[in-house]
Amino acid sequence: MSIAFVVVTLLAQRLLGGPAWAGAASAAITVGTALSSSWLSARMAIRGRRPGLVLGYMAAIVGAVIAGFGGQVEFFVVYLVGLVLFGIGQGSTSLARYAAADLSPPAKTGRAISYVVFASTAGAVGGPMLSDIASDVGTSLGWDELVGAFVFATGFFALAAGVLFIFLRPDPLLVSTKGQPKPSKRSTGLAVGLRAATSSRMAALGLAGLVVSQAVMVMVMTMTPVHMDHHDKPIGLIGWVLSVHTAGMFAFAPLAGWFSDRYGRVQSIAVGGVILSVATVITAFASEASSMLMFPGLYLLGLGWSFGEVGSSALLTESVSNGDRVAAQGAGDLVKAFVSGAAALSSGFVFITSGFGVLSWIGVLGSVALIVGCAFVGRGRVNHRDGTSTTAKSEATTTSE
User: Fold this and answer.
1) 112-131 pLDDT, tens per residue?
2) How far apart are CA 123 and CA 127, in angstroms?
3) How far apart are CA 223 and CA 226, in angstroms?
4) Domain interval for residue 305
């Protein structure tokens, strides 16, 4: 996913002749992620994690081929269709973190989720660094230099699907639900998941944390390549900035997981909001795309997302009943993807009309709102044994009953 993120907005800008609708490329990916989240979750609830994840990666391979073809023949609609299918791969990657929570004890849920997020570091950081090589490959094949990234993405998705198909045995979700009646399609749908994810204050905070952290991060990150390109920064430098950003997202996830387990889910979300606020204040002053500001700003943007993502995922998982857990996880990722898709789409218009600074200040407002939400909702006493609020436990019990 990360190797494509370097080029999707730039290629859209090239196909359209301007940046106004360039955010549509990232929006298309997030639409694919959103549409697949609930669908893949429903499939996993019935058949297990492995079939759902592999199916998502196979769909992403098809999407990468279509998107690359659309970019090469300069057909924007085909390009967007391919990116929607490509986004299903992101949906699979996102849902994979919950596979770690299927068999983890409550006191270690945050760390279990964070280890999967951390495992993404190699690809997330290495992907943008391969942007120059991918460009050379595309050029050597007689294609547009930006299309080469989709060639690489196809190979990596195929590798991911193969590894999961062969080695994810036994299936962790099927093991964790052994002896329980199999859910029906009706009991795994989107409506069930949304009701579960909003059934208590803590579950709703977990959902809000996922949504706001993702939206703030995507909104600023989407326009970063365009902003730097407008100031004549080379694609290699853009790739390095995005590599540092993704390092912030994934490399320190175990720290976020430990913090979440030790001090509480709500506290982890609040810390994420504080870091996101600092990050977007820094990028707000990067009017000339100075490396001195873009590197720390995008790094902290990723780190704030990591704390929010890990804490919110654990809180949502623990705040709903066992029977609704997979549906709630899928619904949470669906809402997160749709909202971040809207943020990505609107970011192009904000950028062209008001600039990168105003875009960043909007991110500041969203981050502060998340902090206020944590202060308002998470006033329950923290149980330091498992890192969750007593309020979350009592409300989750009520929901289950």
Assistant:
1) 989 988 888 888 777 777 87
2) 5
3) 5
4) 2-171+185-400
